[in-house]
Amino acid sequence: xxxxxxxxxxxxxxxxxxxxxxxxxxxxxxxxESSLPWSVVFNDKNSLAVIGVHLHPTQIYETLxxxxxxxxxxxxxxxxxKAGMIFAVYLIMYSVLRFVVEVFRGDYRGIQYxxxxxxxxISIGLFIFGVFIYARKSSI
Length: 140
Fold this sequence. Notes:
There is one protein chain. By secondary structure, the protein is mainly alpha-helical. It has one domain. 63% of the residues lie in helices and 3% in strands. It contains four helices and two strands; from the N terminus they run H-E-E-H-H-H.
């Protein structure tokens, strides 16, 4: 099972990066208002984003983060490792990326738990699970 996770982890990161490009074009998963020079403005009335407002391009943040994660995992795969280590690193790094990107999200994220979105809560769980796998595999 861990070998399968190791095999698919880089592809998951790459697929997720490509998927977020689709989110950007659709205007979903948009960010909070921003005055930063790289903020984006959606003007298409069919966009799911707020129209005419400068927003954080959270879809692009996650796209770039996932491309970096994919690149890192591809290089990490070349090193000798125990089964499950690549998958664990993917879980750890992706959960951190997602937790941080969620801070900048402006779309409705559902019920919050202790001020955290459901995606952030899930990210914490994935992080703990990834650290558990990594620690367990490192000690074997």
